[in-house]
Model the fold of this input.
Amino acid sequence: MICRFEDLKCKEIINIKSGRRMGYADDIEFDSCTAKICKLIIYGRCRFFGLFGREDDYVICWSDIEIIGEDTILVSCDCPTAQKQGRVGFKSLLK
Done:
């Protein structure tokens, strides 16, 4: 199966250990010496339209990918869930 990165970006990534939908691949990391893909990167969600940055990114090693199907990519990794960092409330902006 030959697959372009554009094709990978359209597939939803699901962790089979937790059953959690992680998102879609936003970027890849590859080794320039061997020309092999090392990792898939899923960017964290934007906070308040991107004004307060974004949550942590998910980095999935290529060896953790179990199956690349037509619609989804199944991974088996111990990725932590997106950590909710200290959020700035609306009331604190008015002070």
